[in-house]
Design brief:
Blueprint (H helix, E strand, L loop, with lengths): L4 E4 L9 H7 L11 E4 L8 E4 L8 H4 L27 H5 L6 E3 L4 E3 L5 H4 L6 H5 L5 E4 L1 H7 L3 E8 L2 E11 L6 E2 L2 H16 L1
Parallel strand pairs: 1-8, 7-9
Antiparallel strand pairs: 1-6, 2-3, 4-5, 7-8
Length: 199
């Protein structure tokens, strides 16, 4: 679908897991869901978030693959590993800053969201985006997002000093210019909270 982009809006996720079920129905996933679904802060809230692969401009998973099994297609989609080449070493699983690839033990292969390539390459929307009732996962033209959303679409992420640009966009508050994901920040917050509780 030329001109369509993938957008993720965690603030819209209602935890229904329709995307998880639909993803498993994608022909290329062979009955396994590639959606990353989790509770944001299980102790404090029931809020959930569903994520797909971000399809990095310069994919770390492909960089660390010793068998050259992970390919980025011409349209920017990064596919699952090629079965004949994948040696199930888990390098990609450990290297991905977003924690997306999954080593499927029975298949001895890394699999991940490939944006339903069997569908999108034929002009259809990804399975998860067709069933999401709140449009937390949306595959639409950019002008639809600009017209219907207050948030801003962002595809630049910082992990410490590492800048990553992705094909998939995240909806963020309009005043934000970048998304910083630094584990150290959360560790300090947790430690500070623990200190304040003991004082």
């Amino acid at each position: 679908m030329f001109g369509y982009e993938f957008y993720v809006d965690p603030s819209r996720c209602i935890g229904c897991q329709s995307c998880v079920q639909a993803c498993a129905e994608c022909d290329t996933h062979r009955g396994h869901s590639m959606i990353q679904f989790d509770f944001i802060d299980r102790r404090e809230t029931i809020a959930t978030a569903a994520f797909v692969c971000w399809h990095c401009e310069d994919p770390t998973c492909a960089q660390v693959c010793p068998a050259d099994a992970i390919k980025k297609y011409d349209d920017g989609v990064v596919g699952s590993s090629l079965k004949p080449r994948c040696i199930a070493c888990s390098n990609c699983v450990l290297a991905c800053p977003f924690g997306i690839p999954k080593l499927m033990a029975p298949q001895q292969q890394m699999m991940k969201c490939d944006m339903c390539y069997d569908r999108t390459s034929a002009g259809k929307r990804p399975m998860c985006a067709t069933v999401c009732p709140s449009q937390a996962l949306a595959y639409v033209p950019p002008e639809v997002i600009a017209r219907e959303r207050r948030e801003k679409a962002m595809n630049t992420f910082w992990f410490g000093e590492q800048k990553i640009t992705t094909k998939v966009f995240m909806m963020v508050p309009a005043e934000k210019s970048e998304v910083h994901v630094d584990v150290a920040d959360y560790i300090w917050e947790a430690e500070d909270a623990l200190v304040s509780q003991t004082e």
